[in-house]
Specification:
The strands form two sheets. Strands 3, 4, 5, 6 and 7 form a five-stranded antiparallel β-sheet that branches. A two-stranded antiparallel ribbon has the order 1-2. It has four helices and seven strands, in the order αββαααβββββ. The chain is elongated. The chain is an alpha+beta fold. The chain is 33% helix and 33% strand. Helix 2 (38-53) runs antiparallel to helix 3. It has helices at residues 2-6, 38-53, 60-71, 74-95; strands at 13-19, 22-28, 98-102, 108-111, 122-133, 138-151, 161-167.
Length: 168
């Protein structure tokens, strides 16, 4: 029983085929990444975005490098570090502030993977609300993110998603 609990889930697909005038049921191979669902992606993003975009003065360097290594592809990690972290870091240092990011709405999947179009990634739009918290002042702001997320069997995180592109 213990081996069944630790075993990775496996999907099997079947289809009806007509061969020589007889109907048969044929088993079709399914990649394990095909078992990833849209809801699993949305849940993953709802967890990752607040984690990787909220910083304190103390953890901005360690947390951003951890997130870029674990959840981003190399070029997307550079864009995340250069366009977001390097922009926020001086602001947090100068004001001795923290920034917290939340999602007011669930992420919107604007495009799903398609083998027909040879597109093996999701395009997701995310609306974020961030609060820059200083000692006596809180400054809210809103920002839209567009992410390109690829399901990958050998990703660095257990959810098997990797962010391959980012636009802020």
């Amino acid at each position: 029983m213990n081996t069944f609990i630790t075993q990775e889930p496996e999907r099997v697909a079947v289809m009806k085929v007509e061969e020589n005038g007889r109907k048969k049921i044929k088993q079709v191979p399914v990649r394990s990444t095909a078992s990833l669902t849209d809801q699993k992606l949305i849940n993953w993003l709802e967890e990752i975005i607040p984690t990787c975009f909220s910083f304190t003065v103390i953890n901005i360097n360690s947390k951003s490098s951890y997130c870029s290594d674990k959840y981003f592809q190399k070029s997307a990690a550079q864009a995340y570090l250069n366009n977001y972290v390097d922009e926020i870091a001086p602001l947090l240092d100068s004001k001795d502030a923290n920034i917290y990011v939340g999602l007011p709405y669930a992420p919107i999947i604007t495009s799903s993977p398609s083998t027909k179009n040879k597109k093996f990634y999701y395009v997701v739009y995310i609306q974020t609300i961030s609060s820059l918290v200083e000692r006596k002042v809180t400054s809210p702001s809103s920002r839209g993110l567009r992410l390109w997320v690829a399901p990958q069997k050998h990703a660095n995180n257990p959810n098997q998603f990797t962010i391959i592109g980012i636009r802020m």
